Amino acid sequence: MDKNTALDFLSRLCDGLSVMFGPNCETVVHDMNDPNKSIVYIANGQVTNRNIGDKFKILGGKDIDKFFSGTDIINCKALSPDKRTLKSSTFHMKGHGYHYALGINFDYTNFEFAHNILKDLISVGKDISEVIQASPNTEDLLDGYIDDALKFVGKPISMLKKEDRVQIVKCLEEKGAFVLQRSIPIISERLNISRYTLYNYLKEIRN
């Protein structure tokens, strides 16, 4: 590929990428043999405020030797002159009498800002089941729920009929008692019923 063909290809590639990724994506072709006015083509130059004829400049870096040696730089963090955050890549194309570099600089400052907001928004603590299961007062909490339910039906446990027990289980269900660790054995023991019977009451209530 001769020099003119290479430049034509890279220029068209610049245009295509800039259209595909929008106004936040700057694409630029550098003539690495002429660093003082290296930019020979640029699209969306507003990202870094550069134009054709501007000198070669590393965005947010100082190690210029790697660029002129032809080392590709891929998906690195860089800064625009006005300190906006960029994803930056540079790809080299060398041939007889030319050395071009295609630069892609994507301004993701707004995305980074949105990411931080979303990260804070979806941040949570421990899983609720872990907190509930780790609670040392589960049995005391259940005892309180059961006592409240007994007061509601107005009978001591020894005088409870089936419909009374179903009503108590319904009260406990409404309070979320059955998501607590060991709720089934504790409640069935307090109500003097088997776990099987308790599960049947729950099934009856939930259906």
Radius of gyration: 35 Å
CATH architecture classification of the largest domain: 2-Layer Sandwich
CATH superfamily of the largest domain: PAS domain
Mean pLDDT: 88
Helix content: 40-55%
User: Which residue ranges are poorly predicted, with pLDDT under 50 across at least 5 consecutive positions?
Assistant: none
Number of helices: 8
CATH topology label of the largest domain? Beta-Lactamase
Question: Structural class given helices, strands, pairing?
Answer: alpha+beta
What strand line-up does the widest sheet have?
Answer: 2-1-5-4-3
- Our count of domains comes out at 2
Overall morphology: rod-shaped
Note the gap between the termini: 76 Å
* Name of the top-level CATH class of the largest domain: Alpha Beta
| Helix-strand string | HEEHEEEHHHHHH
Oligomer: single chain
The biggest beta sheet is recorded as:
5 strands, antiparallel
Percentage of residues in strands: 15-25%
Number of strand elements? 5
Please provide a written account of the structure:
- Residues 142-203 form the Transcriptional regulator DauR-like HTH domain.
- InterPro entries: DauR-like (IPR039446), DauR-like_HTH (IPR039445), YheO (IPR013559).
- Keywords: DNA-binding.
- One of its GO terms (molecular function) is DNA binding.
- Residues 7-116 form the YheO-like domain.
- This protein is an alpha+beta fold and 207 residues long.
- The chain folds into two domains: 3-116, PAS domain (Beta-Lactamase), CATH 3.30.450; 128-206, no CATH class.
- Helices cover 45% and strands 19% of the residues.
- The protein is built from eight helices and five strands; from the N terminus they run H-E-E-H-E-E-E-H-H-H-H-H-H.
- It has helices at residues 3-21, 65-69, 109-122, 128-134, 138-153, 162-174, 183-190, 195-206, and strands at residues 25-31, 39-43, 73-79, 85-95, 98-107.
- A five-stranded antiparallel β-sheet has the order 2-1-5-4-3, covered by helices on one side.
- A hairpin with a 7-residue loop joins strand 1 and strand 2 (39-43).
- Helix 5 (138-153) packs across helix 6 and helix 6 crosses helix 8 (195-206).
- The longest helix is centred in the first third of the chain and has 19 residues, at 3-21.
- It is rod-shaped, with a radius of gyration of 35 Å.
- The relative contact order is 0.10.
- The mean pLDDT is 88.
